[in-house]
Structures are given as C-alpha cells and as structure tokens.
Amino acid sequence: MHIMxxxxxxxxxxxxxxxxxxxxxxxxxxxxxISNDSSWINTANEAVIFxxxxxxxxxxxxxxxxxxxxxxxxxxxxxxxxVFRAKFDNGYEADIKVCSGxxxxxxxxxxxxxxxxxxxxxxxxxxxxxxxxxxxxGVIYKVELKEREE
Length: 150
Prior knowledge:
The protein has helices spanning about 55-65, 70-75; strands at about 1-5, 10, 15-20, 40, 45-50, 80-85, 95-100, 105-110, 120, 130-135, 140-145. By secondary structure, the protein is mainly beta. The two termini are about 25 Å apart.
C-alpha cells in the first residue's frame, strides 16, 4: 500500500491533508499525479512521522547541548524523553527515542521485528529531523521525521 505525504501531512480523499496516518487514504496504485511538494511512501518499508514545530525545536535544543544539568532543567537522568514510532505493513516497528544520558541527550533508533525482538540498531544520533535507515533481512526500512508545517 502507498500513502501520499506532503509537509502538511497525509492525504485523505475528500478531506485533504490530515495529521494522523490512521486517517490517510491507502492506494494500491501510486501512478496518481502529485504536486511538487508531495511524495509517495510505500508503507511496507517507509514511514513519515510528523512532529509539531515547538516540540521538535525543544528536543533539538536539548540534543545540541554538550552538557546538561538535568537537576536544574528538571529532567530525569537516563530517561526516555520522547518516542516516535513507525509501524510497517509486515509488523515491524521502528522506535526513534530521545533519551537523557549521564551528561547530555541523544537519539536511540531501533527497529523491532514482528515478534518485538530487536532487528536492527543504528548508532546514536543527535539530529532529530531527517531520515533513519535500518536494514533487516535484506530489506531497508526508512523512517523520516519531519517538522509539520502549520
């Protein structure tokens, strides 16, 4: 199945752009013409997750800091601050987790198989927005985190 995506969200026939992927219209044929700011994703191994601009900027600010006094910031040390989850058609799931460490914050991207076992772990990241690529059993899974246009 395919879903049409733009910076405004996911396409839903009759309603236009929506922010919830569960409301998106799924297409078996992606030959329908699209505008320049839109693209098709194959839900078998591609996902787009939209993050509100304010949240994305707050998380990126934490990720950009070399050292954080978690007590002053009222943030728990060694904690999960945010998780962005992508689900694929075959039951695989990717978690893009923003975590606090001992002195700073980082992103922990993990792909799980249909049984919930870790299928792929990629190195810690520090840029929240962008494309995360995982490989498991010869298949490349892509998750893009995008700031949603208001």
